[in-house]
Amino acid sequence: MSPAVLAVTAHAANAMALGEEMVPIPIAFEMVAVIVAAASGVLAARENKLDLIGAIGLAVLVSLGGGLTRDVILQEHNVYILQQPLALPVSIGTAAAVFAFPWMVEKPDRLISVLDIFAVGLFAVMGADKTMAYGYPPITCVMMGFITAVGGGMLRDICLARVPYIFRRSNLYAMAAIAGAITYMVLIESLGMWNIAAAFISVALTMFIRWWSIRFNIMSPTEFDPHKMPEPVKKVARPVVRPIQRAGRRISAKMSHEAEHARTRSRDGSDLKRGGSARNRRSQ
């Protein structure tokens, strides 16, 4: 048997053994993430005046595009959108319902924003979990978790001919997804935690980071140009001449004040003498 066949066989056996040890993430959580992502895709379609077909297309891209991109990159012959019988119907049904009745998601905007970051955190965990089941290294699992979380939104923005949201300055959106995927891998690989508990903690951390960035307006950094940075204030040594000049000015001012005072006294004395002479002449 050739070494390539042996490697593929060992890789498949390792993935199967790891998959048997781990409990899959509950399907209800997966469907919640799909529903929320599909609803956000329909809202983007309505903002851009797309028809029903365009809304359904964007909904499918946002809700399942990240997982599809991950599976295409991994090439493990296990495409989520094809093997999960509920994924595509739930996405299409959500798109049709939200397109017909947009008030369902436009009114409770705060709830939708909370569920949106919940979906991002859960997609990051799902992507990392599936990649880890195939035996890939942790860094690859984190990358695939990040792609699963934000890949759908990136495909949406590409179809709408605009810069993807994850590449624009915003409140820690992509960074929150990366933190969630890293936390999940650390809890599983380093601490050996049960994957369901690790998923809850990772999603909670993702939501907290996103909330914290919005609450205190923490924005992702943009351009950095060291030439545009303000130059440090340089301390200039004071010359010795300045204190001497200041002392000279004080002495000159004092002498001028004394001279003016002396002129005032002499003027007052002259006035008194003239007044006395005038009184003497009147008395005579």
Polypeptide structure, described:
The chain is an all-alpha fold and 284 residues long. The chain has 2 domains: 218 residues, no CATH class; 45 residues. It is built from 11 helices and no strands. Helix 3 runs antiparallel to helix 8, helix 7 packs across helix 8 and helix 7 crosses helix 10. The N terminus is likely disordered.
Notable features of this structure?
single chain, mainly alpha, 2 domains, elongated, disordered N terminus
| Total domain modules | 2
Shape: elongated
- Helical percent range? over 70%
Q: Average the pLDDT over all residues and give the rounded result.
A: 78
Strand content: under 5%
Largest sheet: none
In short:
This protein has 284 residues and is mainly alpha-helical.
Could you outline the blueprint of secondary structure elements for this entry?
Blueprint: H1 3-21, H2 27-47, H3 52-74, H4 80-83, H5 87-100, H6 103-106, H7 109-133, H8 138-159, H9 174-190, H10 195-215, H11 241-283
Helix pairs in contact: 2-3, 2-5, 2-7, 3-5, 3-8, 7-8, 7-9, 7-10, 8-9, 9-10
